[in-house]
């Protein structure tokens, strides 16, 4: 009897976590998460029954795992669609995922239209030298509507009667990163201009072609568009806007037979990651353009640490881009592509923690995952140094006075 009571409470605890998770999922659900939800609820009921029958914990757990395994195995991928005759348009192929994806799709036999910022650049030259003549390189800056229009005309001319099967919205950039308060407006606008407005324009321009062929739209987004990663507010906000746009299109265009997938990759070494010159320049630009009062309150050493941490983080990012490339292929060829793909080490765990744990824990987790700041803003360090006898608010006031004395009155740009 004693044993029964103990295992009962253990099961109750475990189940409340799972049921709580399920409820949260229901609240934030869309159609695609229904199968997972059903499996989840089924598993809960099963565990509950076992618990009622007073089974040994190990056995119950074993059966629970078997159910999960069965579900995963049962959802095994269906045979892929044929590549033959399919054309794909992909943006941002100067480097990173674009560079890798074009080569892979070309090798598989797709007809590829790849946009690059610079037709004479290293990336374009590399693609020209290694790809088959099925690859057409197009010069497009996705912030320039007339260049996108020209790319549409060129693509149509090459396709002839054939439709376009896929659009891969890959082009994107992170102008700079840093605390949201310290990020310049040019940083927010720069991210929006490319990641949001640029991608919206490309998608709108190519939709008529894609509707003809009941094709696929695949968008490379970022978990930072959904979770509040420190120092990624400007990039994340632009991806968040993009996610909502794509998600809305997804159900509006379902009657047309179009399928949308969004890929949420973890940290991969792409873009300007390795370009130390770029980050040095951005850092200098930030320091020069920050208001003196902000610079004083946060301190240059704080901003410098953020830059160094980011560069170190970039070094640990995965160099093997194939998980993302393979996911793009799956989204292009699976008979039932997922609405969302989590790709790369740790993304699923991150989403699990951010979805099912309290904010206090998930915030800490995100801080540990990305830039682990050790340096406190200068004003907060001074404040702590004032001693423990003073109350917090008094402390604050003293400190603000100090700063204002040093800098006169803060200027707001
Ligand atoms: C493109 O990918 C290849 C590896 O497949 C790499 O050697 C090359 O440097 C990449 N180009 C750019 C510009 O990233």
From TrEMBL:
Pathway(s) served: Steroid metabolism
Regions that span the bilayer: 6-27, 39-72
Pfam families per the UniProt record, alphabetical: adh_short
Organism: Chanos chanos (Milkfish)
GO biological process: glucocorticoid metabolic process
Family that this chain belongs to: Belongs to the short-chain dehydrogenases/reductases (SDR) family.
GO molecular function terms attached to this record: 11-beta-hydroxysteroid dehydrogenase (NAD+) activity
Cross-referenced CDD domains: type2_17beta_HSD-like_SDR_c (cd09805)
Keywords: Lipid metabolism, Membrane, Oxidoreductase, Steroid metabolism, Transmembrane, Transmembrane helix
Region span, Disordered: 391-413
Compositionally biased spans, kind Low complexity: 395-413
InterPro entries attached to this UniProt entry: NAD(P)-bd_dom_sf (IPR036291), Sc_DH/Rdtase_CS (IPR020904), SDR_fam (IPR002347)
Protein name from the UniProt record: 11-beta-hydroxysteroid dehydrogenase type 2
Catalytic activity: corticosterone + NAD(+) = 11-dehydrocorticosterone + NADH + H(+); an 11beta-hydroxysteroid + NAD(+) = an 11-oxosteroid + NADH + H(+); 11beta,17beta-dihydroxyandrost-4-ene-3-one + NAD(+) = 17beta-hydroxyandrost-4-ene-3,11-dione + NADH + H(+); 11beta-hydroxyandrost-4-ene-3,17-dione + NAD(+) = androst-4-ene-3,11,17-trione + NADH + H(+)
């Amino acid at each position: 009897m004693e044993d029964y009571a103990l295992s009962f409470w253990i099961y109750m605890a475990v189940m409340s976590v799972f049921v709580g998770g399920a409820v949260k999922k229901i609240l934030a659900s869309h159609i695609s998460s229904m199968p997972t939800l059903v499996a989840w609820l089924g598993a809960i009921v099963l565990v509950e029954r076992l618990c009622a029958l007073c089974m040994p914990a190990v056995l119950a757990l074993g059966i629970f795992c078997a159910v999960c395994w069965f579900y995963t195995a049962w959802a095994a991928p269906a045979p892929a669609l044929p590549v033959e005759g399919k054309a794909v348009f992909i943006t941002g192929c100067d480097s990173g995922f674009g560079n890798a994806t074009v080569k892979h799709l070309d090798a598989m036999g797709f007809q590829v239209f790849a946009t690059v910022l610079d037709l004479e650049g290293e990336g374009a030259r590399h693609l020209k030298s290694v790809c088959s003549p099925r690859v057409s390189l197009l010069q497009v800056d996705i912030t320039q509507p007339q260049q996108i229009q020209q790319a549409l005309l060129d693509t149509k001319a090459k396709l002839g009667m054939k439709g376009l099967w896929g659009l891969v919205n890959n082009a994107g950039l992170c102008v700079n990163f840093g605390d949201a308060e310290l990020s310049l407006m040019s940083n927010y606008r720069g991210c929006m201009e490319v990641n949001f407005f640029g991608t919206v324009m490309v998608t709108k321009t190519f939709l008529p072609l894609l509707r003809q062929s009941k094709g696929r739209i695949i968008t490379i987004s970022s978990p930072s568009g959904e979770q509040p990663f420190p120092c990624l507010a400007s990039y994340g906000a632009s991806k968040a806007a993009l996610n909502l746009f794509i998600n809305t299109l997804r159900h509006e265009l379902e009657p047309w037979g179009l399928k949308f997938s969004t890929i949420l990759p973890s940290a991969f070494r792409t873009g300007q990651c390795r370009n130390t010159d770029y980050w040095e320049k951005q850092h200098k630009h930030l320091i020069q353009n920050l208001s003196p009062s902000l610079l004083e309150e946060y301190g240059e050493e704080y901003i410098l640490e953020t830059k160094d941490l980011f560069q170190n983080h970039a070094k640990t990012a995965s160099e093997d881009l194939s998980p993302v490339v393979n996911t793009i292929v799956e989204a292009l060829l699976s008979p039932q592509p997922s609405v969302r793909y989590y790709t790369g080490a740790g993304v699923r765990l991150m989403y699990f923690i951010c979805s099912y744990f309290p904010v206090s824990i998930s915030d800490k987790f995100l801080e540990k995952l990305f830039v682990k700041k050790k340096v406190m803003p200068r004003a907060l360090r001074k404040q702590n140094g004032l001693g423990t006898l003073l109350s917090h608010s008094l402390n604050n006031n003293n400190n603000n006075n100090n700063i204002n004395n040093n800098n006169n009155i803060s200027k707001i740009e």
